[in-house]
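Researcher: We're teaching a course module on how sequence relates to structure. For the next exercise, students receive a sequence and then see the predicted structure as tokens, so they can try to spot secondary structure elements on their own. Here is the exercise chain.
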Amino acid sequence: MSITLDGTTGIVAPSVTGTPVIGGLVSGTAVASTSGTTIDFTGIPSWAKRITVMFSGLSTNGSSIPLVQLGDSGGVETTSYLGSINQGGGSTPSSAAYSSGFAFATSWGAAAVTHGAVTLTLIGSNVWAATVLHGISNSSGVYYGAGSKTLSDTLTQVRITTVNGTDTFDAGTINIMYEG
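Model: And here is the predicted structure for the students to work with:
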């Protein structure tokens, strides 16, 4: 069986940027999360259907909870996120909902150091589902959550920031990986 696209025989592979890794995944460039109030990954191609935001040793200088926000051609969207985050382990399990992004925790402190990932999956029609899973290494606790966000247009960027938008990242590394 063959498929004809653009006058050629066979399947035409999409053009990709970044560094390809196993199975057609494209890795972004790792960023030190040691300064600034936001970390943006831009230029995500329109064919991306799953994006993983990975972080190791992520910390901030304050108590505002880190979160992931999605953006399109109109910019980063800061409202209408659905879902919740839960804390398992530790002395007091808890849960919370945030509408400004996919939150990393139910509470946060400047001493918090976390490792894990947020996976974003395109459902269709610019609707993205998110799963959050990470652990705190300076104390006991695992955070897990899920949610969704409908964008106005095709996703082109992912932002990591904090709920208040003013706390500064002071440790760790963040990267993204995406696939079609």
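Model: If you want an answer key for the exercise: The domain at 16-179 is CATH 2.60.120 (Jelly Rolls). The two ends are 22 Å apart (CA to CA).
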